[in-house]
């Protein structure tokens, strides 16, 4: 069957929650954000944030567990293929969202456009309108983060917020700080885990190979009707969820090892099974193409639309680079020696261009990798305690 260009492929798989219960899945694999927080005795709220370009974002608020003096709020921004769930998946003892709420912080876990919680727009339907998916991390940095920051500061009546971003959550922050530098005044401190900007020294072989065909792959996917990939309602999510229940280290651990440098056992099998149930929850093809362009160009630059559209959009034949030297708010970079996505050499390039790096902290564990910052066996000791110590310093 021939599929017309710009027509979206329709796909939707049911949740099959009852079947998962029958098969003995870990309950936390399929519970959503508010169900998880309720299960573990934390109060949460669901908020809808509107962006300048019409996207409707779901942001979950995890209320503080105590009534001490009001602290600065904390915004948490997830990585690629991910959602707000990333910050609470490992449970109340080791989930950063819970730890922050227990320490009296007002926690706001963002869901950026296109993921399972934020597939909404004031007029576009993500299942019918291809235009909905015409965004990359550029639009997320320009529109989503500013809207969320303004909303959080408005609700909390605070002048500044903390920001924690993981992986693409850091990329989005660098875009915002470069293109909308006025938001530097609203950030008390940002802590960026496995930061991604320059990808010149990417160690992961698979993305490097795929990146060489970025334009051809994007054009092909658009032609056959795919603007969204790795979505929760797609078959790939269901297969991953099932396999990781029964073979978490063997299947999903191996997949992470091949792409991020993950070392088997550095995330427990239980947590890995739960995590994969919440990963692969939607990303635009254009976002993946934008990262592919960064790998090939070896520059941190805006999306290359081709000569004619570049001239019309940017006023230049080639896309301009993001000027991260405009990011004047204080930053802590949290890095890992064995991170195949966010290499130390690329972070050195980034650090040399940022004017206000408080610290580049390398986790003192040689096997630490890209996702260990969130779910690693010793994440509390190596990362979360570091975050809390910095917040204590900047709270005054």
User: How many beta-strand segments?
Assistant: 10
Cα gyration radius (Å): 20 Å
Q: End-to-end distance, in Å?
A: 64 Å
Shape: globular
Sheet with the most strands, sense and barrel status? 8 strands, mixed
Structural class: alpha/beta
Strand content: 5-15%
CATH topology: Rossmann fold
Helix proportion: 25-40%
Q: How are the strands of the biggest sheet laid out side by side?
A: 1-2-4-3-5-6-9-10
Q: What is the CATH domain class? A: Alpha Beta
The CATH homologous superfamily is called: Alpha/Beta hydrolase fold, catalytic domain
**What is the N-to-C succession of helices and strands?**
HHEEEHEHEHEHHEHHHEHHEHEHH
Outline the low-pLDDT stretches.
1-5
Tally of alpha and pi helices: 15
Mean pLDDT across all amino acids: 94
How many separate domains make up the residues? 1
Description:
By secondary structure, the protein is an alpha/beta fold. It has a single domain, classed as Rossmann fold. It has helices at residues 17-22, 33-39, 96-102, 137-156, 168-179, 205-211, 214-223, 235-246, 248-260, 269-278, 285-297, 307-314, 344-353, 372-375, 379-394, and strands spanning 44-50, 56-62, 74-77, 107-110, 161-166, 187-193, 228-229, 283-284, 331-335, 357-362. It has an eight-stranded mixed beta sheet, sandwiched between helices. Helix 5 (168-179) links the parallel strand 5 and strand 6. Helix 8 runs antiparallel to helix 10 (269-278). The termini are far apart. Mean pLDDT is 94; it is low at 1-5.
